[in-house]
Design goal:
This protein has helices at 13-25, 48-100, and strands at 3-7, 31-33, 42-45. The protein has 104 residues and is mainly alpha-helical. It is elongated and about 80 Å long.
Length: 104
């Protein structure tokens, strides 16, 4: 019997690669099924023992993944927001100066 350990439907490519890498590191043999007409892509194992081990690994992976995403997004988002704000401000100044300039 096969056991589904991870549904790939909503996973990003990076998360999918991260999960697979962790499963390989823990020597868990798995296989994938592609998206079908009536099914989602998923990662599967063949035994109940591997399922238990894989779910523990995936739980740790998802926790680590969320922490990594939070750490990367927080500083990046702040910088992006500052840059966007600065660009909008400069554009507004240029637009105002262009409108206030006397026509020739």
């Amino acid at each position: 019997m096969s056991y589904k350990i991870f549904d790939l439907k909503d996973a990003s490519i990076e998360e999918e690669r991260f999960i697979k890498k962790q499963l390989r590191m823990h020597r868990i043999k798995f296989y994938e099924t592609p998206k079908g007409r009536h099914s989602n892509p998923a990662i599967w194992v063949k035994t109940a023992l591997q399922e238990v081990k894989a779910k523990k690994v995936i739980g740790k992976c998802q926790k680590k993944w969320r922490e990594n995403v939070k750490q990367e997004q927080t500083p990046g988002s702040a910088i992006l927001n500052k840059k966007s704000g600065l660009i909008i401000l400069l554009f507004a100044i240029v637009l105002i100066l262009a409108l206030l300039r006397p026509m020739s």
